[in-house]
Design goal:
The structure is a single chain. This protein has nine helices and 20 strands. It is an alpha/beta fold and 363 residues long. The protein folds into two domains: 48 residues; 264 residues, Aldolase class I (TIM Barrel), CATH 3.20.20.70. The longest helix has 15 residues.
Length: 363
């Protein structure tokens, strides 16, 4: 393989304003920059009279994870996924659980570099069925993510976006044209929550969810991190889960996960397991067929059940699969009801391992 180095590349999502500044049109933040200024995401900046991506080919690290950790429970369960991210983020969540990466303003964070072809070949050699663009958000490094996805598709490897869904319409179309699956982080269900704790807006995230459902074949699941006293009220959970069923349908899986004190919200306690169980029950009662709990030990809340006969289709103990009640066509063995998602005839056996990978070994 020929020698390759990471680079700063031009982007196409921008326009020049009458006052001479350059507006980034990637996401709803619409940063308006002078030459030499970076956007809030840190990785996109105005340079030489255009907006460029400054971290193409540079990563904060690579790691093999179980697919369920993304979390995706209905996309080839039990398989391994090669995960990586860059630095920066286009939201400013005070509760960020990956703040050391997403809030980084140091290029030393980006210690590993690799071409799209190197990443694809590494995933193939490591036996990973998929690649995940995660840890911060693929929206802000989408040119790199798209090139990696194209290289992976040539080798039969799937691409998964783990994202907050905070993106404008045209870049959204361009990004998801290359994704096979996604997990969308629906952080709350009020504009007040997004404005107060994320410095963002709810509406663009809902637009992303509606787009994925009605205009693509991308398999997607939703994660909702529940923060005590902020977005865990019964009223908000009722409104959110009803909207999901009415607008996206009952087959979109929802993951209710536990917050732990971090970044700028260290004074908030961990989410009680009972809160997650309550959220899961509300979702099920409102018609969500597949609702899960996460970041806590809950074998029942982590397992998949047939929505018709109640048979356990996929038993999970953290990230280790147990019972497998699906036939070779992804249907319930008891009542033959199809389980929505993408399933192989047999489950994967990666388990709960987390394996860091240095891509320098694959060049």
């Amino acid at each position: 393989m020929e020698k390759w180095t990471s680079a700063t590349i031009a982007t196409k999502y921008w326009h020049q304003l009458e006052n001479g500044r350059f507006q980034c049109d990637l996401c709803p933040r619409e940063c308006k920059l002078q030459n030499g200024q970076r956007g809030m995401c840190f990785v996109r900046m105005a340079l030489d009279d255009q907006i460029v991506l400054t971290t193409y080919g540079r990563s904060s690290g690579f790691c093999i994870d179980p697919i369920e950790k993304k979390p995706l429970n209905h996309f080839y369960p039990g398989t391994s996924i090669l995960s990586f991210g860059t630095a920066g983020c286009n939201l400013a969540c005070k509760f960020c659980q990956n703040w050391d990466i997403s809030k980084s303003r140091e290029f030393d964070t980006l210690a590993d570099s690799a071409s799209p072809e190197t990443i694809a070949h590494a995933a193939k050699e490591l036996g990973c069925r998929s690649i995940a663009y995660t840890y911060n958000d693929p929206t802000i490094f989408m040119e790199y993510a798209v090139d990696v996805a194209q290289a992976c598709h040539e080798l039969g490897i799937y691409s998964v976006a783990v994202t907050a869904g905070y993106i404008h319409e045209q870049p959204r179309r361009d990004l998801y044209a290359h994704m096979d699956a996604a997990n969308i982080d629906l952080k709350g269900f009020t504009e007040a929550f997004y404005q107060k704790l994320c410095a963002g807006s709810l509406t663009p995230v809902l637009d992303t969810l509606l787009y994925l459902k009605h205009e693509t074949n991308v398999w997607f699941e939703i994660t909702n991190l529940l923060i005590p006293g902020e977005n865990d009220s019964t009223a908000e959970l009722e409104a959110m889960t009803r909207w999901v069923v009415e607008e996206l349908g009952p087959d979109v899986p929802m993951h209710f996960t536990a917050f732990h004190p971090d970044y700028k919200m260290r004074d908030i306690p961990r989410t009680p397991a009972a809160t997650l169980t309550r959220a899961r029950h509300i979702a099920l009662e409102n018609g969500v067929r597949f609702a899960y709990t996460g970041n806590v030990y809950d074998a029942d809340g982590g397992s998949t059940y047939c929505h018709v006969c109640g048979t356990k289709l996929i038993g999970r103990n953290w990230y280790v699969l147990g019972e497998w009640g699906l036939d070779e066509n992804g249907r319930c063995r008891s009542c033959h009801t199809p389980c929505p998602g993408h399933f192989a005839p047999k489950p994967g056996s990666w388990g709960s391992r987390r394996q860091p990978v240095h891509l320098a070994n694959f060049r």
